[in-house]
Amino acid sequence: MPVLVFDLDDTLYPELSYVHSGFRAVAVFLSPLLSVPAETLAAGMIAEEAAQGRGQVFDNVLRRYGRWSKTLVAACLRAYRQHKPELSLYPDAERCLTRFVAWPLYIVTDGHKEVQARKVAALNLGGRVRHAYLTNRYGRHRAKPDPHVFELICRRERVAPGQVIYVGDNVRKDFVGIKPLGFKTVRILRGNYAHLEADAAHAADRSIHSLDELTAEFIADLAS
Ligand SMILES: [Mg+2]
């Protein structure tokens, strides 16, 4: 039986919902310090992210109220990373995990290991996959495109790479490292990378718009 491996952020749930959830936690932390309602602070951070990205959001909210300091920026980052997020799977991801409940399922995700672990817990994925591989646990050099944890999955399942299908959204790193080893790859066209063009080395074997397109037939065709 083929092995199905999923990326996490923007493949199984919208990553922006994590960002917003984190901003709300930071707003609750800052509210008494700035004497501003948490809802006002959260709305400001969410609007700024939409307009300019997330890079300076904590700096700017503190500046706006005349309270910028390195220490407070670091405290905001801590509140963000340590918060317990409230997240939901994309509806098609929910259906997909249910459809393949009898198959060997895995997650492979990069990023801060404790943050990623909290996302897995918030989405209740622990009981729905055989293991969520947080590449960060194996060292930063094991982040995608490094194939290390994919090789661990092959060993654990006693299958060849051709029997392992990876579904991800980030065409910059999700497929380029594992394709040469024979892993099968599926790109889901959503999130920040949906419109990026990929050269032959980075492109996935197939592209889909929804995980509903992932059927047993689709996989049999791909893994044959
Ligand atoms: Mg992703």
UniProtKB/TrEMBL annotation:
Among SUPFAM superfamilies, the record links this protein to: HAD-like (SSF56784)
Establish whether keyword Lipid metabolism is in the entry.
Answer: no
Q: Which InterPro entries does the record associate with it? A: HAD-like_hydrolase (IPR051400), HAD-like_sf (IPR036412), HAD-SF_hydro_IA (IPR006439), HAD_sf (IPR023214)
What does the record give under GO molecular function? hydrolase activity
| Co-factor(s) | Mg(2+)
- Give the keywords, sorted: Hydrolase, Magnesium, Metal-binding
Work out whether the entry's keyword set contains Hydrolase.
yes
Question: EC number(s) for this protein?
Answer: 3.1.3.-
NCBIfam families from the entry?
HAD-SF-IA-v1
What PANTHER family does the record tag this protein with?
GLYCERALDEHYDE 3-PHOSPHATE PHOSPHATASE, N-ACYLNEURAMINATE-9-PHOSPHATASE
Under what name is this protein listed? HAD family hydrolase
